[in-house]
Predict the structure.
Amino acid sequence: MIEITDLLFKYSGSDFALQVKRLVIDSAEAVAVVGPSGSGKTTLLNLLAGVLLPDEGQVRVGTQQVSTLHDAARRDFRIKQLGMVFQNFELLEYLSVLDNILLPLRIGAGLKVNKAARVRARDLAGHVGIADKLQRYPGQLSQGERQRVAVSRALLLQPSLILADEPTGNLDPSNKTLVLDLLLDYARTHAATLVTVTHDRELLQRFDRVVDFSELNQWQGVT
Ligand code: ADP
Ligand code: MG
């Protein structure tokens, strides 16, 4: 499902580099990505999502060579196949919770908000305990509630790949379990692939596999 080969990525004006010879994640696999802060976990998710492009090597997701798609095709791929939970949630402050969850439908070409989509949005919100907050605005939510809006939005279009960047990072223990249950249940019932960055060691046993970033990045500091 996901295959990274001979990847090299650098930010311009930064000493950081990410070098991955090979990483394969099977279809429907649930993988936890761990590693110290600043080790490149968010960068890796952005490379998988086609938000960042590698300087060398290939990133394949399903049948798509993400690294060679043009801008419009990459955007379309992101909206239709990926569910992303961002580290900072990326909620739009001027939209209600319901409209934030429905956002992928508003920005995807050829997609529109209909009754079934609203039902699905409510259903997802119900699963994570925010069904009574759909008419609020993000500024009226706690961090944990914002997190759960972000997770609901990521699952709206039934993606085949979910990329979640510390999705349980701001939650208390019971909400951590709730959010992880939702992501894992979704992945298992839809045979979707789940890649989750996490610092929650106690949650690792619930994943099929753990990818440790300190072993993954082979960058030695020479060009
Ligand atoms: P993590 O998610 O593991 O904490 P990141 O992938 O966010 O790490 O960052 C990896 C490294 O790249 C860090 O040293 C960070 O400072 C640097 N970095 C992140 N984003 C940028 C950017 N846009 N420009 C330059 N350097 C960046
Ligand atoms: Mg990060």
Remarks:
- Residues 26-55+69-212 form a domain with the Rossmann fold fold (CATH 3.40.50.300).
- The chain has seven helices and nine strands.
- Residues 41-42, 87, 165 surround magnesium ion (ligand 2) (CB under 6 Å).
